[in-house]
Amino acid sequence: MQKPFELLVFDWDGTLMDSEAHIVTSMQRAMMDAQLPEMAREKIRDIIGLGLREAIHRLLPNESDELHLRLVDRYRYHFFADDPCEPFEGAESVLRQLSAQGYLMAVATGKGRHGLDRVLKSTGFGEYFIETRCADETCSKPDPQMLQEIMTVTGVNPDQTLMIGDTEYDLEMANAARTASLGVDYGVHSRERLLSCAPLGCLSSISELPEWLAAQVQQNLHAETNQVI
């Protein structure tokens, strides 16, 4: 079938996985272990999507590196000790459908490699992705390196790549890598914040993605017809 893009790159937390509450709770527990004052959930929520070290530095820029490393350790402890996260409804069906349609798919995430491999195995989603990149093995979003590395490995050009994510960090990364982007507003950042990054659109459910991609094909055909005329 005709496709508007060859490569679809997904963010993980907040895009495919409903993990926001667990991430926030794990960070709050880590801060409690470090005897830090309680931090508002909204402030922690805002850094979801960054690499863990980058997120902690943004939350606590004036604290020592030693404290940052302790928080990394305690966060991982709490996150992996009790991981109740589940994929968003419809995520597996969408991935299966898009794979059958011939799309190449990848993951670009702020998670660490251990965490991503663990959840790819537990969900069974690993079979759908040709490549994955994590924040602990390359630069954290919104730096474009993660996305650029995926395109290099897959051999797909920026104009045939679509980045899909729930934060402005995802969309800013796409802009820096000169790829198209698509926001999803059911995750962390608001629709208004996402639209300020000029994505091609903004979905309210992952289940809308196949229909949105099909509509892009029709738009492209219409544009080509108008050019011929």
In short:
Helices cover 48% and strands 13% of the residues. The protein has 10 helices and 8 strands. Strand 7 (180-184), helix 9 and strand 8 (202-203) form a beta-alpha-beta unit.
Given the helix and strand composition, which structural class is it? alpha/beta
* Largest β-sheet summary: 6 strands, parallel
Please mark out the parts with pLDDT under 50 across 5 or more consecutive residues, or reply none. none
Helix content: 40-55%
Evaluate the radius of gyration: 18 Å
Count of DSSP-assigned helices: 10
Annotation, overall tally of beta strands? 8
Task: Report on the architecture of this protein.
The protein has ten helices and eight strands. It has helices at residues 20-33, 41-45, 52-59, 65-81, 91-100, 113-123, 145-154, 168-177, 191-195, 209-228; strands at 7-10, 17-18, 86-87, 104-109, 131-134, 161-165, 180-184, 202-203. The strands form two sheets. It has a six-stranded parallel sheet with strand order 5-4-1-6-7-8, with helices on both faces. The chain has a two-stranded antiparallel sheet with strand order 2-3. Strand 6 (161-165), helix 8 and strand 7 form a beta-alpha-beta unit. The model has no long low-confidence stretch (mean pLDDT 94).
